Amino acid sequence: MFSTKLIIKRFADYFAKHPTSNLSKLISIFSDELVELEKTNKQILLWRDIEKAQGKALDLIGENVIQDRGVATDEVYRILLKSKMARNLSDGTINTIIQVISIALSTDPSTIKIVEKWNDVNEAEPAAIKLIELPLTKINEAGLDPMNFVRIVQKTVAAGVKVGVIELSGTFEFGDESNAIDNMKGFGDVNDESIGGYLGAVYIPATDQELPI
What we know:
It contains 7 helices and 4 strands. It is of the alpha+beta class. It has 2 domains: 4-46; 56-202, no CATH class. The chain has a 4-stranded mixed beta sheet, covered by helices on one side.
């Protein structure tokens, strides 16, 4: 810490050290600048972390991993960067795909489930997968639309494997006759956003704006 008091203590007692002395006034000017410089250095260190970096700092990380930002916000761009880094190590297996998704969305791998479609009783399809039980809240929080999320997954799977459908399960459900209350599953409260469940979704190809994945 570059405080005036600590710097003044390093001078010999020959000098006048009281707060109103010329030396103290001069050192206070330099100490203020040193404090600002120290804050800047700490910020630079923090911005080396993808989770904390913003703006140009994220762009520089993107240059290192060859991932363009396009029109992505910082939140979405972090997902693109983390997925690109993870995809570079992907071998195309389901376990690796789950790992890539969990890293990109900063969620536990146990919240993600992928099913192969070759043995689907309703619509069997070779060399295809579908994703269910994905953390819809994580995608929503980042502002990432399902289409671009599918494209991230498609870049992760082995060549020739199709990402068929994404089923994003929600938490909303009606109660039973026991009258038990669960604030995370029922209707919401306009006065409290923490109350209420959220609906699920199914991915359908649309005309959403594509990101540079």
